Amino acid sequence: MGLTFEAGAPSASGGRVGVLHLPHGAVETPVFMPVGTAATVKAVPQDTLEHIGRAGAQIILANTYHLYLRPGHELIRRMGGLHRFMGWDRPMLTDSGGFQVFSLAKLRNVTPDGVEFRSHLDGSKHFFSPEHSIAVQIALGADILMTFDECVETPATWERTRDSMGLTHAWAARSKAYWLAHRHEVPWEQGSEKQGSGIGEQGSEDPHTPIAMALSDPCSLIPAPCLFGIVQGGMYPDLRRESAERLVEMDFDGYAIGGLAVGEPREVTREMIGLTLELLPKDKPRYVMGVGYPDEIEEYARIGVDMMDCVLPTRAARHGLLFRAAEPGEDGPAVRMNIKRLEYAEDQRPIDPSCGCMVCQRYTRAYLRHLFVAREPLAATLNSIHNLEYYLATLDRVRGSLAECS
Amino acid sequence: MGLTFEAGAPSASGGRVGVLHLPHGAVETPVFMPVGTAATVKAVPQDTLEHIGRAGAQIILANTYHLYLRPGHELIRRMGGLHRFMGWDRPMLTDSGGFQVFSLAKLRNVTPDGVEFRSHLDGSKHFFSPEHSIAVQIALGADILMTFDECVETPATWERTRDSMGLTHAWAARSKAYWLAHRHEVPWEQGSEKQGSGIGEQGSEDPHTPIAMALSDPCSLIPAPCLFGIVQGGMYPDLRRESAERLVEMDFDGYAIGGLAVGEPREVTREMIGLTLELLPKDKPRYVMGVGYPDEIEEYARIGVDMMDCVLPTRAARHGLLFRAAEPGEDGPAVRMNIKRLEYAEDQRPIDPSCGCMVCQRYTRAYLRHLFVAREPLAATLNSIHNLEYYLATLDRVRGSLAECS
Questions:
Q1: A295 assigned to active site
Q2: Which residues, 6+ apart, have CB-to-CB distance to A328 below 8 Å?
Q3: Most exposed among A212, A273, B77, B351, judged by the fewest C-beta atoms under 10 Å?
């Protein structure tokens, strides 16, 4: 087994703390996973990622679609898998590539067998089936893999959503069958054979459980990645219910709630999450994909979502949008600052006086505005570090208060 | 006085170790100064700069021309000067802006009074005189300021070089007169008044001498920046001699050798440096501006150059050019690697197995190639860190061997 999950007792609103034991270490939940699309959380060095929030990023996500196209999953397999390739020895999750195939690639042709598409990089033709997605993910070697699903356009009719969901269920079953047969083909041992090179040995002082320890852990006697299913069903409660029931019957290590935060009103997102959570097993991790703003992250964690990921903190950072805690007299729990505004040109305060990150300890808004306006590469780095701190510190705080409840 | 310099006895080839005491701390020489054009060493966070080489970057350079145009020297003055503005409490040097006016700006019009030019950013019209250059540099508040000089085109005739040199000497005298009258107008105290903001206090644990200590240092009873003169004279030994003599008569805190590495053969550069060094006082720091490749840096340090700066390590890094030590069987002391080459696609070695930098400790050539090919912002950061390590470690080594000689 690739995973064990210890979930605490839920709070009145359903939130709970937990610990997810994965082949590359333990993850305290609820957790936010920074997105490292191309085997890098954009503009942030790995050692910096390890020092954001109270304990650093515990787990990061990489995108199968991007890595499949460049540098190629077979190359990453030969390099010992993603962990060794990028010098990151904490847990990782890969998505299935489905969402990017549907949002980035060109000339898609969906058949019951899979999706034919053209690369957004060079127009070359490719085909992803559930089996191929899992094969690529096994080559990448993350700790958590995701089933290949169809992502329906928004808005979609009930009939269209039902048909797409049916395809997603069939693909989930095929994803699981392929994973069962091939999950031990991860390249982790190839990686450890190459440890004599002097690269990648820095993990020995890491407090998280490395592979070698996982091997002696009874919960991971046969180290292998685990597989999460993805509940679809659009904005239709009856379809969400049917999808959750079908996925739970198939028995996955964890369950994602997909197809949300795609343009629907936020009350609908919340409703769909709330009703789906009720239908998922309490002893398995529950993951909402691709959300959201800091207050959403907090809200969903407090009702029982264990895992979330989003490009927002890093993408917003690269566009000069920074998150900070509201001060007395300001609306809302989080304030969004557009650092390029003239009002910050001579502002000697840190982004957030209550923030403990290395950016707020050292740099002023005036300096960050200058870097952004001058298009200096350091702007993306410092802005991203701060925004990730805001997200990770938010979840540190939520975990603390949920732990008091349980 | 803004500077004291303790120079050790020279080696057989003229090289010497020394310690430069500046208002913001001590600098061991010979030293390489990373270039932080727009108040940032491109793509490298300040805390990382403090951990490159044995003791981090001891002193960095910023460009007066760029900062004058954006964000403006008056803004930086109001922010307490460059040190506070960018969160860097170690020594800094600013150039005069002259070189950039002659290489970047448009529609230059040189008169005995100064240079009229148009901004390369927006075409707006500006005028730099020696007095204005020093006024801008005082507002920026570096530890070492440079006299305003004319940079002659290359190649230039003897007559043209002589006339330009004459202008440079007149401007050096005017630069010094303005500096004498205004050097105490640096904004350092404005900075320290604002220390209650919580930003910029990280310097208290820094091993380098901060301002507060400099105030109690008898060598800097009246803390002020120091001023270096710039020897010109092109590629003509007689003009170089005349320029050095004239500058030394004017008495500066240190002397730069300018107008080199502008396209002339390397033997000529070396000859000009060698003959000019002979003419400069042994008890003052000697600075060669804008050089060079790692082996040049080492060579000049070994014949008695105390200070150097160059954009090469960081600019080359952003273009994927990395420096590493030669291995047995390879030519030369330093090897230049073009990381985008296919041969590195699956190379699991670090850039330089003998390098102690954080990049070589953690990342493979294969990963760095992937980042560069995928145009990931982390490529510029990691490549720059490694190249700066190569330069700073080279000078750590040269200082070590010169110290043994003296």
A1: no
A2: none
A3: A212
